[in-house]
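Purpose: get a first structural picture of the assembly so the mutagenesis plan has something to point at.
Setup: two entries, given in the order below. No constraints added.
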Amino acid sequence: MPIRFNRRTFLAGTAAGTAAAAFGMPAIAQGAPFKIGLLTVKTGPLAQGGIQMEQGIATLLKQKNNTLAGRKIEFISADTGGNPAGAKTKAQELIERDKVNVILGPLAAFELLAITDYVRDNTTPLISLAAAEDVTQRKANPYVIRPSATSAQCCQPMGDYAARELKYKRAATISEDFAFGYEQMAGFQRVFEDNGGKVVKKLWPPLVTPDYTPYIAQIGNVDCVFNGFAGSNPVKFMRAYQDLGLKAKIPLLAGWTAMDDALLKSLGDEAVGVISAHWYSADGQSASNKQFVADMQKDYGVLPGGYSAGMYIAGQCVEAAIQKLDTKSDDHKAFAEALHQVSLTDTPRGPVQFDHFGNVVGDVFIRKCERKDGKLVNTIIKTYPKVSQFWTYPEKAFLADPVYSRDYPPAKNLE
Amino acid sequence: MSQYLTLAVNSIAYGGLLFLLSAGFSLIFGLMRIPNLMHGSFFMLGAYFGVSLLARGVNFWVAALASAAAMAVIGAVIERLLLRRLAGQELAQVLATLGLSFVVADLCLMVWTGDPWQPATPPHLQGAVQVAGLFFPFFRLVIVGVAVVIAIALWVMVDWTRLGAMIRAGVDDAPIARVVGIKVSQLFTLIFALGAGLAAFGGVVGAPYLSVYPGLDGEMLPLALIVVILGGTGSLLGALIGSFVIGFLYNFGQALFPDLAYVILFLPMVVVLVLRPQGLFGRVVP
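Result (structure tokens, whole complex):
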């Protein structure tokens, strides 16, 4: 039956919704499934990560026989096409038509920014993969938690590692000319410079750049290059970096999207030796990770990376919240609060808990890419335990500063 | 200094790749007047064919030629079954080719997934040229060589062979050409197949350098458009010069004025459209 709206049913629906909200959502009959909606990207240039997201949550649901904490799950996947307008439309479909209990995703920061107000207004809990800093900082949304990481959450430890352990003094940064790139580079720059380093060059190629040579040619006399590319761009960038002879001269550092384990199969010798910071490692030794990696390889023949692990962990958070609330899981507000209090000891990334803004506090791994038995692997060389989105800075002071951007913190050492 | 030298050499290399992409587009647009918006798809699909063959251990040049041949057949089928029916209707041609490009993009996503593919540079073409502090990958110079060889071959074909004469006759006045016994329809199918094949060849040759991923089609199409608009439609010399001009504008624009990279790329196109709509080397069609 096609769904028709006219003003009367719409008003009645709104009235019922208001009444329900006023009295607190009544617990729906036990038999009704708990609905999880996934906002992912299955078409267009961002599809690579989006398909992995769906594989991640599908793996969890298969392991749990489609039942989380005793509650039957109904899983609905929506393809946003990887753009803000599509994310908004699909979020509306999931919330208003499918009446989902929780949304997982979306993938990209600009998609998250397009729907954050909407999910709050519609009191629907959302477990994000996307990184946009302020959604768990200055504009914190009580309905959103993020078990993956903010843009800078891995880059801040990377800056620390580059300055203090690798003893690099001069760095160049290069990343796409968009928010995720700005926030990553800003986090690296801040910590690197606070520990005595200098970022002397910041390069911003457009999101669509067929050839990186013009940018790579500008990298001058530096000790290291930090790149924050995402999607398919790191593959192109690293090949050009090697082809132009820089790989042998200047070590390359990377953010999590640039050296994600799922990307390794697309990379060759150009990736060997690259040091990256990631909140997840397929090499992780937790029991759930071993099972997760084995199932991903069995069902999809792939090594999982952050996109699939992020959604697997999101599913674990849903399970923990249902366990806690039991029959009250259908109350969206209570569910969002329960999500904030989730504390897991065994996830593919290790222990997971959330700060009061709903952002994860978890380990960050520094990895070095090596070739073992002919295959590329990211070997963990250092673990930063329980990294917060604020790194070691006091929360209040951190939030008093402007959000990370292309111009903040200001780059004072450019040459 | 060496930065500018690297940029200059890379401009030429990039121009070579752009020529492989846009030569076919120029032929199709100039000779058949079909604004083929799936040219980027030919490039991408060809590149995917190529990487699949390379993954099975096929020789690099064999893979490129095989992919070009396969794409030529697909191009011929599309021309014969679809575009032939839309002859003279430019709007319908634009919409049909654009729609097909979306179909191709989604089919590629289903078959080759969203993961980027980047074949290794063929072993005998690896390494770099080092002259006076300049370090430049040898493979990219090979691309320039290939582009020049293809440019000469196309020029000889169009300007010096009987086939070329027939094509030119068909383009200038199709009814009269038919009267004197030239099978114009078959020629057009041939041109379209050739254009598709060239794009696919460029896709494979460019794959170790650009890699292949969803969205590559949409990145390459505007480049083919500006090359051909700048150089003049239907003019091979125009496509060749246009490719190198765009190669230089792209490289130096992005390095010197990164914030204006796209302005620098597209501004010349706008200027040419206003002052010399037929392009630098295009003919004025009576």
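Chain A touches chain B at residues 42-51, 203-206, 208-211, 213-215, 217-218, 231-232, 235-236, 239-240, 243-245, 262-263, 265-268 (CB under 8 Å).
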